[in-house]
């Protein structure tokens, strides 16, 4: 007999930047310049590999790509007569602008294509306060489960034992606001752990884009499909180990519908 059943089904079709704006997205911006004299290169192409997203630089070599789904990407800068540069593992966070600058070498120097491994900066320039972002991969490796439990291990957060009540900076549990893909949710949320792309926690110094918040914000960005099929299945049980008999089953699946244009992601979880 089911004592509790919580099912979360997420179906995302991604085709163009406009199609993904409803989901958590960020911005990629920066400058492409000549490595020799530092002059901006107008008309250089900056491409996010594996997607249809990209931009050309302006007269000063600046570029901006909006509506980039949360995740990690390889970003390539190209300009005729110059050696291309690819920066790998660039991390895009929901609601923030990631600054990536490129310095291209003239092809006359005769060097091969350059690959740079991205390192996340210690300070997020456009962040207010000190947001704490935990990626989906890190959540999978944490010794806790659930949105509230991930938030509870952050400094300044206290939780009730065996409950999802959070007390941030001494506030009441009702003063914590939750968002899922930018949509305000009343009360604690139950999102399949494998469906989380990143979890952002704002503790104090709340940005103006969040209204009616007194203590903290927990913002969940769910995963989206990609050009390759992926998925996971999980079953957790305490049958035979205690008298409660806790059972949890979860399943997620994502992949392309039209490679490079439309993809899907479906996730579900139930406990009984």
Topology diagram in text:
Blueprint: E1 25-34, E2 45-48, E3 54-56, E4 62-69, E5 71-78, E6 85-92, E7 97-99, E8 102-104, E9 114-117, E10 132-135, H1 136-141, H2 147-152, E11 157-159, E12 166-168, E13 176-180, E14 183-185, E15 196-203, E16 216-222, E17 230-237, E18 247-258, E19 262-271
Describe this structure in words.
The protein is mainly beta. It has helices at residues 136-141, 147-152, and strands spanning 25-34, 45-48, 54-56, 62-69, 71-78, 85-92, 97-99, 102-104, 114-117, 132-135, 157-159, 166-168, 176-180, 183-185, 196-203, 216-222, 230-237, 247-258, 262-271. Strands 3-2-5-6-9 form a five-stranded mixed β-sheet, with no helix packed on it. A five-stranded mixed β-sheet has the order 10-15-16-13-14. Strands 1, 4, 7 and 8 form a four-stranded mixed β-sheet that branches. The longest helix has 6 residues, at 136-141. The termini are close together. Mean pLDDT is 80; it is low at 1-22.
The coarse overall form would be globular
Low-pLDDT residue spans = 1-22
Q: Largest beta sheet: what is the strand line-up?
A: 3-2-5-6-9
Number of strands: 19
Question: What gyration radius follows from the Cα positions, in whole Å?
Answer: 21 Å
Biggest sheet details: 5 strands, mixed
Q: What is the straight-line distance between the termini?
A: 7 Å
- What is the chain-wise order of helices and strands? EEEEEEEEEEHHEEEEEEEEE
Q: DSSP strand (E) fraction?
A: 35-45%
How many alpha or pi helices? 2
Helix fraction bin: under 10%
Mean pLDDT: 80
């Amino acid at each position: 007999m089911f004592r509790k059943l919580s099912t979360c089904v997420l179906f995302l079709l991604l085709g163009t930047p406009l199609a993904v704006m409803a989901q958590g997205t960020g911005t990629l911006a920066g400058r492409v310049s000549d490595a020799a004299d530092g002059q901006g290169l107008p008309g250089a192409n900056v491409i996010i590999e594996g997607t249809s997203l990209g931009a050309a630089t302006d007269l000063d070599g600046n570029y901006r790509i909006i509506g980039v789904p949360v995740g990690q990407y390889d970003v390539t800068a190209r300009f005729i007569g110059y050696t291309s540069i690819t920066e790998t593992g660039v991390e895009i966070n929901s609601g923030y602008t990631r600054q990536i600058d490129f310095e291209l070498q003239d092809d006359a120097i005769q060097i091969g294509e350059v690959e740079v491994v991205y390192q996340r900066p210690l300070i997020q320039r456009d962040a207010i306060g000190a947001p704490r972002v935990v990626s989906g991969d890190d959540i999978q490796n944490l010794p806790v489960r659930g949105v509230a439990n991930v938030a509870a291990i952050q400094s300044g957060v206290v939780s009730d034992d065996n409950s999802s009540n959070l007390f941030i900076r001494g506030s009441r549990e009702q003063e914590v606001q939750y968002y899922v893909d930018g949509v305000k949710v009343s009360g604690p949320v139950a999102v399949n752990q494998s469906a989380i792309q990143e979890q952002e926690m704002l503790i104090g110094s709340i940005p103006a884009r969040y209204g009616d918040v007194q203590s903290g914000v927990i913002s969940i960005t769910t995963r989206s499909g990609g050009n390759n099929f992926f998925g996971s299945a999980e079953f957790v049980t305490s049958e035979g180990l205690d008298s409660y008999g806790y059972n949890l089953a979860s399943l997620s699946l994502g992949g392309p519908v039209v490679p490079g244009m439309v993809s899907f992601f479906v996730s579900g979880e139930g406990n009984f």
